[in-house]
Design a protein that fits this description.
The protein is α/β, with parallel strands linked by helices. It has two domains: 2-106, Cobalt-precorrin-4 Transmethylase, domain 1; 111-228, 2-Layer Sandwich (Methyltransferase, Cobalt-precorrin-4 Transmethylase, Domain 2), CATH 3.30.950. The chain is 24% helix and 20% strand. It is built from seven helices and ten strands.
């Protein structure tokens, strides 16, 4: 059995209870060493066979899984954050299916959730933003034409940008070309929940400069939007003048 497990965004205790249990029971662990906090490997039992997928191709990962299965071993494929977001898991599923190897998925805390916690921010503020876009700047890996940053920015909603820290000058230019004001609140969250976490709050037009000043070149999430500002409406759910199925309005 192969268990695809979300490691969470960094802190070892932000893995789920299920994920920690699966990790502790695994005979073989293949982890994304360039992104996953190695402290999570402390959950592994003595004698567990550990592979760092940063040095492996997809074919080598699958061969390692096949070998473990042939030996009756349980494997955990440990992905950073939540496996469903930029986890490259579909290609692994499609390789395992023809082999008849069973697998399941254990979700994890994504970096965009970890960043919000570190910022003490709410992405979906009433009358500010009710939509969160998770996307990335086009680099060596292209994005579909209809999902270019400039096009998505026209919606003026909360944006969480993965895999874009090395492309910040182009990113901020595309966001502003799409309609965001240069003064739009933004933040760079480096390694959310890790011991070395760093948060840099700034204006959209300052993102590239602030990243350079703080020596941030990778492993950071960029968040942009007016949810980082000071103005918003109270929620209706807890408004004393709003009737719900559980209580009557009091004024």
């Amino acid at each position: 059995m192969i268990h695809f497990v979300g490691a969470g965004c960094g802190a070892p205790d932000l893995i789920t209870v299920r994920g920690a249990r699966l990790l502790s029971e695994a005979d073989v662990v293949i982890y994304a060493g360039s992104l996953v906090n190695p402290a999570l490997l402390d959950y592994c039992k003595e004698g567990c066979e550990i592979h760092d997928s940063a040095y492996m191709t997809l074919e080598e990962v699958i061969e390692t899984m096949k070998k473990a299965e042939s030996e009756g071993k349980t494997t955990v494929r440990l992905h950073t954050g939540d496996p469903s977001i930029y986890g490259a898991i579909r290609e692994q599923f499609d390789a395992l299916d023809p082999l008849g190897i069973e697998y399941d998925v254990c979700p994890g805390v994504s970096a965009f959730s970890g960043a919000a916690a570190s910022l003490k921010a709410e992405y979906t503020l009433p009358n500010v933003s009710q939509t969160v876009m998770i996307t990335r700047m086009e680099g060596r890996t292209p994005v579909p034409d209809k999902e270019k940053i400039r096009s998505l920015a026209q919606h003026q909603t909360t944006m969480c940008l993965f895999l874009s820290t090395g492309l910040l000058e182009g990113l901020q230019a595309e966001l502003m070309a799409g309609g965001f004001s240069p003064d739009t609140p933004a933040a760079i969250v480096y390694k959310a929940s890790w011991p070395e976490e760093k948060i840099v709050r700034c204006r959209l037009c300052e993102i590239a400069q602030k990243a350079t000043e703080n020596h941030i070149t990778k492993t950071a999430l960029i968040v942009v939007g007016y949810f980082l500002g000071d103005n918003y409406d109270r929620s209706k759910l807890y408004d004393p003048g709003f009737t719900t199925e559980f209580r009557e309005a009091t004024k």
